[in-house]
Amino acid sequence: MTPRPLRPPGQRPKVLELAEVDKTFAGNVVALRAMSLAVNEGDFLSLLGPSGCGKSTALRLIAGLSEPSRGRIVWEGGRGENDLGVVFQEPTLMPWATVAQNVWLPFRLRGRAYASVRDDVLEALKLVGLESFQTAYPRELSGGMKMRVSIARAMVTRPRVILMDEPFAALDEITRFKLNNDLLALKARIGCTVIFVTHSVFESVFLSDRIVVMAARPGRVIRELAVDAPYPRDEAFRTSPEYAGWCRATSEALQDAMGEAA
Question: Domain 12-83+162-168+197-262 belongs to what topology?
Fold first, then answer.
């Protein structure tokens, strides 16, 4: 997978935009109100906020799994069938299928035979360190390995944007740190844009160059913070005074957002 060249943050073209988006569910439950957000090529953008602030709803709208009640979601240049990959909180693997067959799924849904995309599947598995597990079944994998399969499946078609809905929330801290490191390495190798939902201040600061802080009831953007630490990031960054400072500023913004809840 040849990486897409990325421009400096201030020079990146827009990939998609949420423009004054509302989402209201049955019973007049307002999940999002007037949410506006521009996502640029190569961003690692985290949506951070308390439970019920509409982070996952925003991801579902971007993914096309739901429609806005008001406002628009616009993809620059239109959205193609290979423009989007999604990683959910649970790996959602097919238990009866091998690891390779699970990664093949996005191609299979488009009518592509396994033989025609085998090299792409094996390359994706190699990138997540699971090439030797291609014939294994999900029941034979640890939780972290299952999530790696899910990430490989999301990236196998080389999407412009990968949506990730708290993918590491259920994992232990050691595994979570390792997958955070691996995710940044993968992003650097394929040059994609990532929109990442998390409850964790620490995770958002380590991963992101942009953090969008949301308030609940109704869900909306309260503040955006730029984390301008250079990539690659490693354990030295995670234990640095700069990291601690960004975590403190992000935590304060999150507290402000929680105070804004109506």
Answer: Rossmann fold (3.40.50)
